[in-house]
Write a structure and sequence with these properties.
The chain is an alpha+beta fold. The chain contains 13 helices and seven strands.
Length: 531
């Protein structure tokens, strides 16, 4: 059975950052509100005691002393007048009467709600009234001679009455002094409580601030720092690093999501590595297969030269010696054999030339394409003259490549334009060249019969023909050889689908610097293998 602390820990573990913040802020506000109320009460209590001490207790004691002083002035004035009969002694008496009345009024207003104070004040008032009625008023209102007589007659009674009054005022002042002392002590206690309260509030604010910063550090900044550090390690290639952080539930969930993404990336990377390894293996197999096919094509074409020459020689000898001596069908058979041997000879020569691209002629030197094109035109001069072709070209650049292969490129492209010319118009061929982003872009345009869009990629495949050998002779290797030559030099070749009428062959060759880099990376065969 799960214990209560474990249940509480499990419940707290599900708290999110928002819930922790809400609980922390609520707790802090409640604590501050309670302490604020306590501090407010302490301030109010201090203010109340201060007001009582300043506005009531101390002034009441002062008024009691003023009352005593006024009554003593009255007694002194009456005594002096009663002894001397001189009226100037009544001046202190008159002032004492006025001062006593003012002090009495003030004391009455300050004794509201104080039973002890009102009792003492009543006792003082009663005794002061008795002394005034028995001694002070009769003496002060009499003539000087009569005042002396009355004062002498009532001296003992007046002294006794005033001593009683003096004792009552002493008790009153003692009570007021005690109350003032009590109020002062209460004020000190209230100020001590207030100071302690605000000290606790300040300490609690410091504690709450520390807890907030510590909570933010442990609950937010530290988990985010751990998450960021783990994510950076994964970003730097440590895909085996698990992303696990402590803290609120939502941050742990975020870390779990990031770790799930890491595992997905690891799986994708592993699959990519496996795919790349398989692709590299297939590329190596394909390269080996192409090398073996090229080797086979070369060996086959080379080894077939001798027996084919014998077949061709003997069929031609047979045609010369027995031509016209046999029947017409025999002459036809002999003609078929001679034609087949000649076409086989051309096919084998073309296949041998195709297999040698990138193997035998693989030098990379600076090549002036103008010179190569002029030599090619000289080679094709007879066909150009017979067809009435007009061949023009832009100034051609100097590139890095193999002179023989680039000559084969021009020869095959121009031969195709001349071969597949339109019967309705003389051939017009133009060669253009333009530099673009480190590449030379060439275009060989003619006004021939053209190539249908669905065959514009097929024509670059080996042995692909669009016409019968009777309509247009050839082996179907020319454009395939052009593609191999261009790709060997680091370019691309294609048919322009928008050119009408005729055909426009577009191909690219790297600029001089780029071609030199490409040639440095190439690893052509050193020479032609021996049969």
């Amino acid at each position: 059975m799960t214990s209560t602390p474990s249940v509480k820990q499990g419940a707290l573990a599900r708290w999110t950052t928002r819930r922790w913040l809400r609980a922390g802020v609520t707790g802090a506000l409640v604590a501050l509100a309670v302490l604020g109320a306590l501090g407010g009460w302490a301030m109010w209590r201090t203010s109340q005691i201060t007001t009582e001490l300043v506005d009531r207790r101390s002034p009441a004691l002062i008024d009691a002393i003023r009352l005593e002083t006024a009554l003593i002035d009255q007694e002194t004035g009456v005594r002096g007048y009663g002894l001397s009969g001189r009226r100037e002694f009544l001046q202190p008496y008159a002032e004492g009467v006025a001062g006593g009345r003012a002090a009495m009024r003030s004391l009455r207003s300050r004794m509201e709600g104080d039973a002890q104070g009102r009792s003492d004040l009543a006792e003082v008032d009663r005794l002061a009234h008795d002394w005034t009625e028995r001694v002070a008023r009769p003496v002060s209102s009499a003539s000087p001679q009569e005042a002396v007589r009355i004062a002498a007659a009532r001296d003992t009674d007046g002294k006794t009455t005033f001593d009683s009054l003096r004792g009552a005022m002493a008790r009153q002042q003692r009570h007021l002094q005690d109350e003032r002392t009590t109020a002062a002590r209460n004020l000190r206690d209230a100020m001590t409580l207030r100071n302690w309260t605000f000290g606790v509030i300040a300490a609690l604010i410091v504690l709450i601030s520390f807890l907030i910063f510590e909570g933010l550090r442990r609950g937010i900044t530290d988990p985010l720092s751990q998450l960021g550090a783990a994510a950076r390690e994964v970003a730097h290639g440590r895909f085996d690093r698990s992303v696990v952080v402590s803290g609120p539930a939502d941050l742990r969930q975020l870390a779990a999501d990031v770790d799930a993404m890491r595992r997905r990336l690891v799986a994708e990377l592993q699959f990519s590595e496996e795919s790349r390894a398989l692709l590299d293996e297939q590329a190596a197999d394909l390269k080996r297969s192409n090398t073996e096919l090229e080797q086979f094509a070369y060996v086959a074409s080379h080894d077939l030269q001798e027996p084919l020459r014998k077949v061709s020689s003997f069929t031609q000898l047979l045609q010369r010696r027995y031509g016209g001596r046999l029947d017409e069908r025999a002459d036809q058979y002999i003609a078929f054999a001679v034609d087949g041997a000649n076409r086989m000879q051309v096919l084998i020569n073309d296949l041998l030339a195709f297999s040698r691209v990138g193997r035998v002629h693989a030098d990379h030197d600076t090549v002036n394409l103008d010179d190569v094109l002029n030599r090619t035109l000289d080679t094709l001069s007879v066909v150009v003259e017979e067809s009435g072709a007009e061949i023009t070209h832009d100034p051609l650049p100097t590139v890095v490549g193999d002179t023989t292969q680039l000559g084969m490129l021009w020869q095959n492209l121009l031969s195709n334009s001349l071969k597949f010319r339109s019967p309705d118009r003389p051939p017009r061929i133009h060669i253009s060249a333009a530099q673009d982003d480190g590449m030379w872009r060439f275009a060989v345009s003619d006004n021939g019969i053209g190539i249908e869009p669905e065959f514009q990629e097929k024509v670059f495949i080996l042995f692909q023909r669009l016409h019968t050998k009777d309509a247009y002779p050839g082996t179907g290797i020319g454009l395939a050889m052009c593609k191999k030559v261009v790709e060997f030099h680091g370019g691309t070749i294609a048919i322009d689908p928008d050119h009408r009428p005729g055909t426009r062959v577009l191909f690219t060759l790297p600029d001089t610097a780029d071609t030199a880099e490409a040639s440095g990376a190439a690893d052509p065969a050193a020479g032609e293998p021996q049969p």
